[in-house]
Structure prediction request, 796 residues.
Amino acid sequence: MNDVRAVLGAKSVVITKSLSDFRLHGVIKNVSSLIIFGCMAVGMFLLARNVTLFLIRQVGIGAETLYGLVAVVLFAFFVSAHFMSLILSYATLFTAREVEFLQALPIAHTKLFVLRTGENIITSTGVLLLIGTAGVLGYGAVFQLAWYQYLMMMFLVMIPLVVIAGILGVFLLMVLILLASKIGVRWMLAAAIPVYSAVLFLSYRITDVMSMVREAVASAHGGSPAVVEISRLSATWLPHGMAASALRCIIVGDHVGALLSIAGLLWMLLLLAVVVVYTGSRFYYTTWLLVGELRGHHERVHRARIAGLFDLRRRWTRRPNAEAVLKRDILQFLRDPVQRIHALMMAMLVVITVVFGGLSVLPPMRTLPRALAMVTILLFDGFLVASITLRFVFPAVSQEGNAFWCVRTAPISLSRLYWMKFILWVPIVLVPAEVLVWSTLPMARVPERVMLASAGMMAFTVVGLVSINLGAGAYFATQREDNPVKVAASQGASVTFLVSLLYLMVAATLLVLPVARVLAGAPAQQANSMLLSAVMIVAAVSLSVSVLANIVGILALRKDF
Amino acid sequence: MIEIRNLIKKFGSSIAVNDISLTVDRGQFFGFLGPNGAGKTTTIKTLAGLYRPTSGTCSVNGFDVHANPISAKRSFGYVPDQPFLYEKLSGREYLHFIGGLFRVRADELQARIESYVTRFEMEGFIDRSAEEYSQGMRQRVALAGALVHEPTVLIVDEPLLGLDPRSSWLVREFLRQKAAAGMTIFMSTHLLRIVEELCTRIAIVKGGKIIYEEMFDATGAQHGTLEKTFLDITR
Prediction:
C-alpha cells in the first residue's frame, strides 16, 4: 500500500499548496470560493426549508405526496451527478497526463483504477453533493430532527446516493469504450444514445414525475393521495427512490424503515462497487490503451473531412486575422473527440428535455402556483443552458493552451481575440436555449405573450451567461491544462457555475409577478407593458453583468503568459 | 533594431531581470547568454510582449512593445524555447493561421510557406497533425511561422534545442544567411560553439543583470575560447 500512500500524499500536498496560495489571484479565488460555496449552501438550506414549509402549510400537501416530490428532486439530483461523473471520468481515468505518468509506475492497475475513480467522484460530484446535502438538511430542519438524524441523512443517504451515481458513470464509460473498440465509435454512439435515453425516460416514468405534480395540485384542492401510493411502490427499488424512502422514514421516526432503506442503498452501493472494481481490474488497462488507439485513429479519419468551409488556406473575409482565430477555434473544437462527444451528449440532454416537455402537460392550477411552475421550468431550462455554457464557454480562453504564445506575439489585439470568442459562442448557446424555452413552457399552459417574454428574457440571459463564463474563464484561465473537461471542473469553474445559477435565479424571479398578473387576466395592454418592463429589467441586469464580466475577461487576457 | 531600457521584471518579491539596458543594431546577430535562471527567457518574453515589465521599456524598430504592441509585433518574429503548437492543426494549417494573424496576402503566404517547407525539409510531416510532431519538427514549424510575415527582427530562444544534426545545420545556415542579408537577430542559447560561429555581438547575463558585453569577432581570440570566458565570469 506504500504506492497508494505515496500517490495520495502527493495529491494532498498539491491540494494544501493550492489552498494556501497567498498571492492576490489565489486569495481571491479561495476566498470567493469559500463565500460563494458557503452562501450557496446556506441559500439552498433556506430555500429547501421554506419551500417545504410553504408546501405543507400553504398548499396543504400530504406527507406521502411530499415524499413523492422529494423522490422527483432526488431523481434529478441523481441524474445530474451521474452525468457529471460520466463526462469527467473520460479525462480523469483515461486522457489526463497524470494517468500516463502513473501508468508508467509500478502500481497495480486495480489500485490505480480505484484511486482515479475516487478522485473522479469527488471532483465531479462535490459541488452537487454540497448543494444536495444542504437542501436535504433544510428539508429536515422543518421537522426539527435530532442531531443523529441529520448525520444519517448526510452520511448514510446523500453520500451513498452520490457515490452510486458516480460509480455508475465510470462503469458506463468503460462499457462504452469496450463497445467502441468492437463496433467503432459511431456505431457505439448510435446504439448508446437511444438506450441511455430510454433508461432515463423509463426512470422518469417510474418516478412518475407528473403524478407527483398532479398530486401536489390535488392536495392543494383537498384531493386524494392514491396516485402517490402507487408511484412510491414502483420507484422504491431505484437508488433515488430508496434515498427518498430513507429520508421519509427518518423524518417520521420510523427507524426500522429508515435502516431498511439505508441497508438497501448501501447494499446496492457495495454490489456496484464490487462489480466496478472487478471490471476495472479486468479492463482498466485495456480500455486505457484502447482510448489512446481510438483517439489517434478517429482523429486521422476525421481530419480529412472537416476542413471545407473552415479551411485556413481559404479567405472569406477582409479581416484575415479575425477569420484565422475563428476558424482555428472551430477546427480545434471539431477535431477534439472529447469536445464532439460532449457536444453530442449535451445535445442529447436538450433533446430529452424537449421530448419530455412535449409529452407532459401540467394540470390546471391557480394563478400563483402556475406562475411559479412556469418560472421553475424556465429555471430548469436555464440550468441546462448554464451547464452547456460552463462546459464549452468557460474553457474557451484556457483552450488557447500552451500555444497562446503565438497569438500573444502576433499583431492582433487581445480584445479582438476575446470578442471573436464571444461572437462565436453567443449564437451557439442561444439556439438550444430558445429551443428549450419554446418546447418546455407550453407544459405550463401559458399564453403566447408570456412565451415571447420568456424567450426574450432567455436571449438576454444567454448574453449574460456567455459573458460570465468567458470572463471568468479568462480570469481563471489555465493554459497549461489542455483538457477542457478538467478546466470546466476546476475550482474557478465551480464558483462561476454558482454565480451563473444565482444570476439565473435573479433573472427568473423578475418574471414571477408580471406572469402571475398576466395569468390572473390583466388587460392585454397592461399585461404587455408589465412583461416588457420585466424583460427590460432583465436586459439591463444582463447587460450590466455582461459589461463587467467582459471587462474582467479582457483585462485577464493581458496577464503574463 | 532592438532597444531595451532599464528593464526590471519582478515576480512577487523576486527580481528576475534587474535593470537591463541594451541596444541591438540593425543587422546584428546578438547572442544572449547566461547560466540557468539568469533571466534570459524572462528578458526575451518581456521583449516579445508575453510579460509586462515591472518598469523600463522594450522597443523593436522604434515601436514600444507594450505601448504600441500591434506595430511592434508586426515587425518581429518570435520563437520560444518550447514552441508549443496547436495539437489539432497540421503544420501547414498552423502556418496559414499565423499568416492570417499577420494579414499576409493569401498568394504571398502560399508561396512563402512552400518555400519554407522546402527550405526546412518539412515535406514529410507538414500535413500531419502537430500532436504527432517531435521537438525538432515543432521547432522548424515554429521558426517558419515566425518568418512568414518577413520580419526585419527575429527573436529566438534556444532555436537549436532538440534538433537533429541535419536540422540544426539547416537552421544555422538559414540564420547566417538572414543575418548577412540584414536581419537583426536576438538569440538566446547555451550552445557556445554556435554563438562563436554565428554571433557578431554577445552579452552574458547573471542574476538578472548584464555582467559582460562584447562585440564578438567569431574567433573568440580576445579571451581565449568563449567557453572559458563564460565559465570565468559566471563562476
Notes: Chain A touches chain B at residues 23, 299-300, 303, 312-315, 320-321, 323-325, 327-328, 331-332, 335-336, 401-403, 405-413, 482, 558, 560-561 (CB under 8 Å). Residues 257 and 467 of chain A are 49 Å apart (CA to CA).
